[in-house]
């Protein structure tokens, strides 16, 4: 009886080893489970949700939070986001703009793209300047908004 239990245990163990030798499952095992960045003790020391979000989502999340802190005092804000192709054309490869729904999830601030149907509601804009980074600009008139939209149009897919 013990011989049969030993054989079944050994067979099960070998099947699991063979299963994780397949490329897809091997990549999952070493990418998600056995990962040096997925250290349980490191995560236990950093339980703050803002730290975890910054660690997971990176520099873009921190930039969005910085925008949120600057725009909170202005009340109702709808932000015009630049297209990612525009940012890449300026040489800003380290940051990317997410879609408006995701931006709202991260910050709680409404945002639109230049090709959105309700782009006329935008009263603030994220302005990207070559060599200077991102800044926020108040849109004071419809002419300012049209200028920004025309600047973004060649980069909209």
Overview of the molecule:
With 157 residues, this protein is an alpha/beta fold. The protein is built from 8 helices and 4 strands. The protein has helices at residues 2-19, 23-33, 40-45, 49-57, 59-71, 84-89, 100-107, 142-152, and strands at 78-80, 110-112, 124-129, 133-138. The model has no long low-confidence stretch (mean pLDDT 88).
Per DSSP E runs of 2 or more residues, the count of β-strands stands at 4
Distance between the termini: 68 Å
Total helices: the number is 8
SSE run: HHHHHEHHEEEH
User: Residue-averaged pLDDT, rounded?
Assistant: 88
Q: From the alpha carbons, calculate the radius of gyration and give it in angstroms.
A: 24 Å
Q: Could you give a short account of the major beta sheet?
A: 4 strands, mixed
């Amino acid at each position: 009886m013990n011989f049969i239990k030993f054989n079944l245990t050994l067979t099960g163990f070998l099947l699991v080893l063979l299963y994780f030798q397949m490329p897809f499952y091997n990549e999952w095992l070493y990418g998600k489970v056995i990962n040096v960045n997925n250290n349980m003790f490191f995560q236990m020391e950093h339980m703050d949700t803002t730290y975890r979000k910054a660690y997971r989502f990176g520099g873009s999340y921190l930039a969005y939070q910085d925008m949120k802190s600057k725009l909170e005092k202005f009340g109702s804000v709808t932000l015009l986001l630049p297209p990612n192709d525009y940012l890449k054309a300026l040489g800003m490869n380290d940051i990317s703009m997410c879609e408006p729904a995701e931006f709202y999830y991260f910050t709680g601030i409404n945002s639109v793209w230049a090709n959105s149907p309700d782009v006329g509601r935008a009263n603030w804009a994220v302005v990207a300047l070559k060599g200077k980074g991102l800044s926020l600009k108040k849109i004071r008139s419809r002419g300012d908004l049209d200028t920004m939209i025309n600047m973004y149009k060649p980069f909209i897919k």
